[in-house]
Amino acid sequence: MSHPIIRLEKVHFSYEIERQEPIKALNGVDLEVRDGEYLVILGHNGSGKSTLAKHLNALLAPTEGDVWVRDWNTRETQHMRDIRTTVGMVFQTPDNQIVATIVEEDVAFGPENLGLPHDEIVRRVDWALEQVGMTEFRHRAPHLLSGGQKQRVCIAGMLAMRPDVLVLDESTAMLDPIGRKDVLSIAQRLNRQEGVTIVAITHFMEEAIHADRVVIMENGRIEMEGTPREVFSQVERLRELQMDVPPITRLALALHERHPDFPAVALTIDEFVDAFRKRVTPGRTTSHLSNSDSQTPHSGETVISMQDVGHYYMLDTPLEVKAVEHVNIDLHRDEVLGIIGHTGSGKSTIIQHMNALLKPHEGVVQVFGEDTTANETDIRAIRRRVGLAFQHPEIQLFERFVGDDVAYGPRNLGLPKEEVRERVREAMEAVGLGFEEFKDRMTFSLSGGEKRRAALAGILALRPEVLVLDEPTAGLDPVGRRQLLELIHRWHEKGITLVMVSHNMEELAEMAGRLYVVANGTTLMNGTAREIFSQVDALQAQGLDAPTVTLALHRLADEGLISREQASLYTVEAAAEFLGGMLNGKL
Known about the structure:
Layout: E1 4-15, E2 23-34, E3 38-43, H1 49-55, E4 64-69, E5 72-73, H2 80-86, E6 87-90, H3 103-113, H4 118-131, H5 147-159, E7 165-169, H6 177-194, E8 197-201, E9 213-218, E10 221-226, H7 228-232, H8 235-240, H9 247-258, H10 269-277, E11 302-313, E12 321-332, E13 336-341, H11 347-351, E14 362-367, E15 370-371, H12 379-385, E16 386-389, H13 402-412, H14 417-430, H15 435-438, H16 448-460, E17 466-470, H17 478-493, E18 497-501, H18 505-511, E19 514-519, E20 522-528, H19 529-533, H20 536-541, H21 548-558, H22 572-583
Parallel strand pairs: 3-8, 3-9, 6-7, 7-8, 13-18, 13-19, 16-17, 17-18
Antiparallel strand pairs: 1-2, 1-4, 4-5, 9-10, 11-12, 11-14, 14-15, 19-20
């Protein structure tokens, strides 16, 4: 057993301690981080994870208790430099950490502030960029990088300080699937090959499966601790803590319930395939598919049409760049349309054309039959009918009180006071914010999830016919994601046409009837969810992935255990029904 490099002893921490009732974030935390360990910390929004992380390198000091980094107490300011060179931290949003205008200068920032000799700084920058695969971008401006590339630069900046511990606080939350895998592979390689201690905080359950140890927090306390297998085998307890299990584990559990001989816990696709192989005969397949998973293309009135659309940023300047080109998308009334693409593929640029925030430089965009570039088109009317929620909808809040922020749109429509009040009440209730409880709350006092709901309420108050959501669940915990998806589903049932941009393949598999795949600024593929997700190789070539269930089924097909057609299923429920039938000898 290795020695602890960090120790937390009965740590308490409260925000706004001058208030009559301070906000208690940590409540008696005892934790050891062992030298060379890969530790993952899970917990719902507000459980205290990020507050705990900020104690690990003295960004925060305990209200009560002690934090020790090696033999230094984080309360002792004379050791601050030693502590922060020992423990490096990478946050969720890379733009908040990048300080220079050139990649290699940003990576050099930390070593320069340590006062290291020039030759040593150069060596460290070269090594750090090589570790994260960003050497070829060293002379690039950070603002020209994708989100995943920026996150790599942030990790390189920390590595150049040669820390013994690297803390990743939701560092993959905003990345596409391949970007997440890249960052995780970097962390795992640093841990296994370089001996760097990793503390990773995440909402993605599948990111915990390769950890040495998993810790789950609730109300500022550590409620569960153990190996990934020990933790994820306690499904009911996890649900009580508002957590989930990885998708492949959910599939294994669903099969275990149908066929008790099947193991209840599988942490990886390899484990799942191995367990299934032992229980079926190769070649015993059939073309039968579950009817519950069948889909047909949506047909109906086209409410938004994008035809051969192109758009430039900084047009007619030396920095001109073509953001999107040859984009062709049709949105039909009453459908849920999904748009997927790697980070920087042009998705956000495309959806801003859907309510004329951007206008095409090439091609045509028609919204409810109106050409968005025509002088006679009423753009304000389009924006009332098509609501757009950005990737961080909370930054759309600007009024002091929640009720006033939600009321902003209706008031600008010139509606009578009573109708404005009714729309605000209706919109707030629709997103799960009680009108009386939240209308007089200050917007800055809301939690992250509550801010997101308040921003969405402000859009719903305009009663749009189409709602465009850019990464609506990014950064939310499993329960928060589930609640928001249920709200979105209810809005759709009430007649709102939806467009969802997401990096979460499982969410889109559940919600969307049709999908468009965007790559390098153009629409590359489109079809039903089954048609798109069955093309695993094509998706992975574009920096994307299929749902975990589909990946597992494709592995089964590779081994001749099921047919290629059967491998096109993509939800846990449909796959469990089909595979459970095989295990029980029904197929």
